[in-house]
Design goal:
By secondary structure, the protein is mainly beta. The protein has a domain of 78 residues. It is 10% helix and 38% strand. The protein contains 4 helices and 11 strands; from the N terminus they run H-E-E-E-H-E-H-E-E-E-E-H-E-E-E. The chain has a 6-stranded mixed sheet with strand order 3-2-1-4-10-9. Strands 5, 6, 7, 8 and 11 form a 5-stranded antiparallel sheet that branches. It starts with 6 loop residues before the first helix and ends with a strand. The relative contact order is 0.18.
């Protein structure tokens, strides 16, 4: 979501965060739980550069903003979209606050608690996914993505992992998934994989989603 969250793209009607009829979806409730997503250079253990240091200009950053101070930015607050990535130039264009992208990303869900193992104990019948890979964009207007599972898919039955299963091809939108969160664990440091880009300092909770779309069985091992 972060890599398609440029405010100018949304303002011009070219992203999943574009508002029908014009403008952006800032202020719209998107998650079905009180989800917080933010950047904070002072976040303990995942401290990041407290000023802009862009090596090139793009919709997400500008060399003309270098040296500008960075502070906490809430991207989602209480489940609602709160901010989109801005340069000073795009902020002037969109008439929205200047909110530069940071070097870390933290997600939490109010009331989320417990480890991944604790969440597994609550599942009657489901799949445990460890990695999503070969991710490709299908539809930018809904942020529909496709990809493969990797590094282990496990069947969960009656609160226990009972064995490994095959890999799958999946089709899902992370924005759509935010409305189908049924449980969340405690936020902890994670290892980002494909599409992480330069934001490699991340903390996220384990999440349970309803009706995740596995489209086909994959022969990949």
């Amino acid at each position: 979501m972060m890599w398609v969250s440029a405010a100018r793209d949304a303002h011009e009607g070219r992203s999943v965060f574009s508002k029908k009829g014009g403008g952006t979806r800032i202020g719209e409730k998107i998650a079905n739980v009180p989800l917080q997503m933010f950047t904070d250079p002072a976040y303990k253990g995942l401290e990041a550069t407290p000023f802009v240091a862009a090596s090139a200009s793009s919709p997400f950053s500008s060399v003309f903003d270098n040296g500008q101070s960075m502070k906490r930015v809430d991207w989602f607050k209480d489940g609602a979209l709160a901010s989109l990535v801005q340069t000073r130039a795009s902020a002037e264009f969109t008439k929205l606050p200047y909110t530069p992208i940071g070097d870390n990303l933290i997600v939490s869900v109010d009331g989320g608690k417990g480890s991944l193992e604790d969440l597994i104990k609550t599942i009657d019948d489901g799949l445990l996914l460890t990695t999503l890979w070969y991710i490709r964009m299908v539809d930018p207007t809904s942020l529909l993505l496709t990809g493969l599972t990797r590094d282990g898919v496990y069947q969960v039955k009656n609160g226990e992992v009972i064995g490994a299963v095959n890999n799958f091809r999946w089709n899902e939108s992370p924005v759509g998934l935010l409305s189908r969160i049924s449980a969340a664990g405690a936020t902890q440091w994670v290892q980002p994989r494909e599409w992480a880009g330069d934001v490699d300092r991340q903390a996220m909770p384990a999440l349970i989603f309803d009706d995740f779309n596995m489209s086909t069985v994959s022969p990949a091992n």
